[in-house]
């Protein structure tokens, strides 16, 4: 009988069979529609077929598999909430969350590629772009023909994006863009960059910069110990002439990029729990298979404690994510709620990765198991899209009404 | 061309099987259901033919109660055009084959594909019965299916090798790997499946003469017994007296 997990005989050899099953201790599946479950199982099958067999190799070699971009486009992982008329999925926020959960269950770097494309490139073009911009860019980004990136962070402006120095001047028939962005996922391979820069009066605007524009380059960042299967780089603008029609007309000010980040952070809240589930699932299996003192290590109290705490935290986070998804669907999800979910999920995932690493013993540090890769990936996830501490301050500000950022 | 793909709604291969009502019924509690893996191959090949042959439509047929509809929607998401659900509990092969034959007659399909067998009761005879009922050839297990005009070239698995044959349309095929690669529905497919037609029809009355008395689980597998390689006597003794296979 064939093993019906979508991987079948056709896939390349994986180091280990991906037998992942998600925990559902509180029957949260009952809160999902049949369509949600089909979306989740389809993306899970996709991950088991396209990502799991190769991811350890890609991560070990720090190789970004560019061919995955087209495959993500084909399966519909780019811009699931963007309307279908622009090539998006026309799906709801729970669906988007489940897609991110399943991809990050495979790898945070792969999820980053999809998050950036959907939430940070397609979302602002859809939300703030003109009809011409939507028609020009969205279908190609949705299909994976083009890869996009998002330029907000600068070498000297991370948690303080409002201090950015990248700027553009109105030259009459075009804008002249100067500056540099750093830590940009997808940049070395991106065809399109949504770049946030200040105009002469200091107001932040979004510009669509395309590969090939003179003075625009995207040097790659090497030597990462995290998100190794995802490509990261800089965006350098040296007197880049940007056509005026490439300015996003719909919104300006720091609020515009922050809206994009809300959308991406929402996906991370789900995604990080995907990574946590993978660590838990692997640890649970390992604890039942690994024999010490003539018993599975799962029979020891300290291992059971770890597993019980992992399941507890995953279950709590699943409920937070689901509820946040419902609020997002109703248009009621707030920045602060997203901050709480993103921060909680990533912290939970990091702790679970560390505990799972211990359950795996020495095997946990090898590429035979996904644990160490998830753990290293999550060190980026806890920092990007608003650091762990910044999200705390967003919540602190919400509780007290007193901003403590500076 | 009109293709009919018959799919089963079966427990996932990793499910734990339990029975209820004094072991007279399968207990679906907590069981994840999937499209029968062999049916999934049949469906994948049908979609490939549709993609390469303009004017082809693929109809999915399932004999099952309302709970099978998510499985049918998945088949629509994979790319079938429409679906029929015969609203009945698929009690036995003759009953199911009768329902399929009834629908196939009405629909005038040129190609009727299904898995070589379901993976719940594994009877593996539905394709043959449907062929007989319709008076058309049935072939199984088909590992390769290439259409050329009104005939099809098939490769079939037989004991110790493969059999290559040509069949004229219409015919019934019970499919298995590697006839096609399983297809994963994409998000657009899932969206469009929402609005594809799914017709529910009542079953025709069939007296198949089959009744289920009770179910039994096979005995759990025993642990492995290691016998020293030079102790053939002990091996033979165990095979004879303990395993009782000699």
Summarize the topology.
The complex is a heterodimer of chains A (406) and B (246).
Chain A: H1 34-61, H2 67-75, H3 93-106, H4 108-128, H5 131-143, E1 148-151, E2 167-170, E3 174-185, E4 192-198, E5 204-210, E6 216-217, E7 232-243, H6 255-289, E8 291-292, E9 295-296, H7 301-329, H8 335-359, H9 371-381, H10 388-400
Chain B: E1 2-6, E2 9-11, E3 19-20, E4 25-26, E5 33-35, H1 37-52, E6 57-64, H2 69-78, E7 82-87, H3 93-107, E8 111-115, H4 126-134, E9 138-148, E10 151-158, E11 161-168, E12 171-175, H5 187-193, E13 198-201, H6 232-241
Parallel strand pairs in B: 1-6, 1-8, 6-7, 7-13, 8-12, 9-12
Antiparallel strand pairs in B: 2-5, 3-4, 9-10, 10-11
Helix pairs in contact in B: 2-5, 3-4
Strand content bin of chain B: 25-35%
**How are the strands of the biggest sheet of chain B laid out side by side?**
11-10-9-12-8-1-6-7-13
In CATH, the architecture of chain B is: 3-Layer(aba) Sandwich
Average of the residue pLDDT scores of chain A: 95
- State the separation between the terminal residues of chain A, measured CA to CA: 62 Å
* Overall SS class of chain A: alpha+beta
**Rounded average pLDDT of chain B:** 94
Proportion of residues in helical segments of chain A: 40-55%
CATH superfamily of the largest domain in chain A: Butyryl-CoA Dehydrogenase, subunit A, domain 3
Number of DSSP helical runs of chain A: 10
CATH class of chain B: Alpha Beta
In CATH, what is the homologous superfamily of chain B?
Answer: HUPs
Q: Which of globular, elongated, flat, extended, rod-shaped describes the shape of chain A?
A: globular
Q: What strand line-up does the widest sheet of chain A have?
A: 2-3-7-6
The SSE string of chain B, one letter per element, is EEEEEHEHEHEHEEEEHEH
The biggest sheet of chain A amounts to: 4 strands, antiparallel
Radius of gyration of chain B: 21 Å
Q: Helix and strand succession of chain A?
A: HHHHHEEEEEEEHEEHHHH
| Most extensive contact | A-B, 29 and 25 residues
**Sheet having the most strands of chain B:** 9 strands, mixed
